[in-house]
Amino acid sequence: MKKKTMTLILMALFSFVGAKAQVIPSTYYSTVGEGTYYLYNVSQGRFLERLGNNFPGFTQTPTTITLTADGNGYTIQFGDGKYMHTGYWNGQYLWTDGANNSAGIWSFVAIDALTNTYQMKRTEEETYNGITGTFYANGTNASTTVNDDCQWALITEAGYYNYLASSASIPATYFTTTLVAGRTYYLYSPYASCFLYPTSDRAGFQNTPAEVTLTANGEDFNIQFSNEKYLKYDAVSAGNTWANGTVGEAWAFSSFHGATGLFSIKHVTANSYLYAKNSSADAWGGECWGTPDTNNTRYAWALISAEDYANWQNSFVLNETDAVGFSATRDIFNVNPTVKRAMTAGAWNTLVVPFDMAIPSGWTVKEPTGFSGGELTFSDASSIVAGKPYLVKPTEAVTSFSATGVTLKKDLNPTTVDDLTMTGTYTAGMVPTGSYIIGIVDGQSDLYHVDSEVSIKPFRAYFTVAGTNPARIRTNLDNESTGIESVSQKAKGAGVYYNLAGQRVTTPTRGIYIVNGKKVMVK
């Protein structure tokens, strides 16, 4: 099945701890109605929970609430049987310890019907601490006035796990939803972004895929590796799964929380159901447990066909025209990215990419190796290292280039020599005041010192000097010493404006331009 090519903007999969918000798209929000949900605060990017001191709180881990219709609204019940209600004590108006007969009713008022976002408010006016009005759930408190934290969404269990699956390193778009006996797949753990494979006897994990074949065993499946051995359960070593079985043992694949393409895998021929679990990318293959925590995503598995895996490998287009050219929370293994980064022939261009690569034919690549007495020295690079910035002079104009089977590494790797640092960027942003940037005008490159922030596109780099940045420094490239001019004047009068790429600009914004052959800055 053909998959859509996507620009790589990745989110962390299964991140249950930490203060960082989860930005869950509205695609996964539900319409209001009776049932069980997770109550998600859109502004905070976190879920409402009931704290032990009867206060409401926010958490990264979703906690269940149940809506029950009552009159013109709903009661909101937590997993321990308590209800959300209003009341006043010591500056707090929202509580989570209500009994059913005193909890009160909440209505859900649509903010945007297209995205299923709501305000939650009481269905009648109340008076607390001298304040009379209709109280809204205002974050973790209540108020008669509405603020940004009054934006709520209801997310079903299946919706939440579909979101997690979609934001995996290999997203759910590439997961198999219907298992076919006799077919070969890759067995993938989204939790650790790795694949199951056979070691000498146990099942292990690796970053590259390994084939497994499913063969029918009643209503279930045997799981056979390419070496013809089977996945089996053995009580040795605390019940690890093993990869040296000579006879197929039945494993049942069940939907994991209703998420599309995610499965739990149960061993059904032991004394009790045992669930395969991925401990970590460095551990032996999934341990088996009789009573798993079914919310734990270490028990989530996906099957990926060779065709879909190849489609995923080729889906990474890192485009300089996108505000986020590349962003990831973990390294992404074994992909075939295409980088859309234009570079001018015969001029020095800055470049940073998130993967290691050999220097293509026709490219001269330099890296900074010294900075002394106001002179910046560059030397030839032997290869291009992920996250490390370089100067590149191609003999022919470059519009894009590709790589095969590489690891996309999430971290930048700035180069510091003496007091000077060359820093790359994977995303669009602003170069700090006092930095130095490479500009190309009429096919010639020059280094500019800026006295105000200027914009920078992805997959480029800039220079900073510790302490007071000098207005003039020299570069040593091609055995020639080139002066660097301070660009700090403000553009005045009429004239034709060109940006540093040599393109004519009708309405210049803040930045450096060429006007009447002179470098000027518009502030």
Chart the SSEs and their pairings:
Blueprint: E1 6-7, E2 35-41, E3 46-50, E4 56-59, E5 64-70, E6 73-78, E7 83-89, E8 92-98, E9 106-112, E10 117-122, E11 126-128, E12 131-133, E13 136-138, E14 141-143, E15 152-155, H1 157-166, E16 184-189, E17 194-198, E18 203-206, E19 211-217, E20 220-225, E21 230-233, H2 236-239, E22 241-245, E23 251-255, E24 263-267, E25 274-277, E26 287-289, E27 302-304, H3 306-313, E28 316-319, E29 332-335, E30 338-340, E31 349-351, E32 363-372, E33 375-380, E34 390-394, E35 401-402, E36 406-408, E37 415-417, E38 420-425, E39 429-431, E40 436-441, E41 444-450, E42 454-456, E43 460-465, E44 474-477, E45 480-483, E46 485-487, E47 497-498, E48 504-505, E49 511-515, E50 518-522
Parallel strand pairs: 1-28, 28-30, 33-44, 41-46
Antiparallel strand pairs: 2-3, 2-5, 2-15, 3-4, 5-6, 7-8, 9-10, 11-12, 13-14, 16-17, 16-19, 16-27, 17-18, 19-20, 21-22, 23-24, 24-25, 25-26, 29-36, 30-35, 31-34, 32-33, 32-34, 37-38, 38-43, 39-42, 40-41, 44-45, 47-48, 47-49, 49-50
Compact summary:
This protein is mostly beta strands and 523 residues long. The chain is 4% helix and 44% strand. Strand 24 and strand 25 (274-277) form a beta hairpin.
Describe it.
By secondary structure, this protein is mainly β. A hairpin with a 4-residue loop joins strand 16 and strand 17 (194-198). The longest helix is centred in the first third of the chain and has 10 residues, at 157-166. The model is unreliable at 1-19, 281-285 and 480-494 (pLDDT under 50).
Q: What is the distance, rounded to the nearest whole angstrom, between the alpha carbons of the first and last residues? A: 51 Å
Number of helices: 3
Structural class: mainly beta
What share of the residues does DSSP label as strand, in percent? 35-45%
Low-pLDDT residue spans: 1-19, 281-285, 480-494
Shape: flat
Amount of helix = under 10%
Task: Outline the biggest β-sheet.
Answer: 6 strands, antiparallel
Number of strands: 50
Mean pLDDT, nearest integer?
84
Query: How large is the radius of gyration?
Result: 29 Å
